[in-house]
Amino acid sequence: MGKLTKNQKIANAKFDASKQYRLDEACNLLKEITYTKFDSTIEMAISLGVDPRKANQMVRGVVTLPHGTGKVVRVLVLCTSDKEEEAKAAGAEYVGLEDYIEKIKGGWTDVDVIICTPSVMAKVGPIGRILGPRGLMPNPKTGTVTMEVGNAVKEVKAGKIDFKVDKQGIIHSAIGKSNFTAEQIADNALELLNTVIKLKPQSLKGTYIKSISISSTMSKGIHIDVKSLNAAV
User: Fold this and answer.
1) Alpha helices for the chain (secondary structure H)
2) Can you tell me the distance from the alpha carbon of 87 to that of 68, in angstroms, rounded to the nearest whole number?
3) Confidence band, pLDDT 50/70/90 cuts, at residue 8
4) Which residue ranges form the domains of the chain, and what is each CATH number?
5) What Cα–Cα distance (Å) separates residue 170 from each residue in 59, 83, 223, 231?
6) Phi/psi zone of residue 70: left (φ > 0), alpha (ψ -120 to 50 degrees), beta?
7) How far is CA 183 from the centre of its chain?
């Protein structure tokens, strides 16, 4: 194990890694132990007591964070010509169809979200093997397959994100940037938690939310006391 930097030593002295904190305490503490020179990403990890291998226990959804993600989201809209102006007016960086499908077949995936209209799904389907592993495949359940492409672009730009439990039963999601205030981080965290709680599978027996932690790029995770959230979520 390499030597700890001066900042890492200072950060480690500020909190107890074995302790669970209230959400507001954790958000304030996270601000104190984040020392990166760049605007690092704040992430939340929610460990669920579900079995993702069972279809009726798959937890997936969308949420619009009240303060956005702090990230510039690059959007590609795949649509027919009659929807192009609507997509461009809403702020989509890339708009088109055939040319972009060919670019993607060639390996280009330099976007964060892809939105398309239902009428072009037959053409988008064949590139699913490229988009799927990168989390870019449009899906009606996340609002990225829609006729209202303008609204979809605006929502994504405003902080709408989709999340999905992984094979280990954990939801990982970015909830802001280190330049956010502690209150903004807490607001975003609560919005995500509220959404996840509403998606609790009816078939689940036992504990749903097992543990929660938040961290910033290169920081250690701070564990949140789930019981302290009962009145808030």
Assistant:
1) 6-14, 23-33, 84-90, 98-105, 121-124, 128-131, 149-158, 182-198
2) 20
3) low
4) 21-69+160-229 (3.30.190.20), 75-157 (3.40.50.790)
5) 10, 37, 14, 23
6) left
7) 19
